[in-house]
Amino acid sequence: MEIKIETNVSYAIVSRIQHPFIGTLICSFLVYNFDEIYKLAISTKENYFRIKLFMQTFQMTPSRHCYSIIVAFFVSIFADSILYNLKRIIEFYISNLTNRYFEMSNTISPENEMNNLESSIGYLFDENNRIRTFINSFTPTLIE
Q1: Which of 21, 36, 67, 121 is a plausible cystine mate for 76, CB 3.0–4.6 Å?
Q2: Do the Cβ atoms of 34 and 48 come closer than 8 Å?
Q3: Is the pTM higher than 0.90?
């Protein structure tokens, strides 16, 4: 019986948190009112006084409710477009960063570039000398 109750309660909690409006309302309420919830949970006073202090805070400052409700409405209305655009922005920046990383890793430092040029010039100079000796060895036989 206890397992069934636990699964029903956990299912109810998960289904409410995953709902676009209710989940956002709960999360924004917890984030915005974290200080009061922290005082409620950690306070050393008796339970009655903690709850009374918690309720007085919300009665004295009704704006604590408004921010959570505004955020919940905004996110529930624009959640799909926000997530879609956020996904596109993240993909864009990740592809940009990877492209820049590969460009930077493929670029050669000036010292390495100079060494590559010197080795290329040395190879071409040796190849030029071999061709000259080859031509010089055949030139006398062609003239005769």
Answers
A1: 21
A2: no
A3: no
CA–CA distance from 95 to each of 61, 85, 100, 108 (Å)? 46, 15, 9, 22
CA distance 59 to 45: 20
pLDDT digits 0-9 by tens, 111-136: 777 877 888 888 888 888 888 888 88
Go through the chain and tell me how many residues it has: 144
Helix, strand, coil percentages for the chain (3-state, nearest 5): 90, 0, 10
Q: Determine the Cα–Cα distance for residues 5 and 19; give it in Å rounded to an integer.
A: 21
| Relative orientation angle of helices 2-18 and 20-32, to the nearest 10 degrees | 90
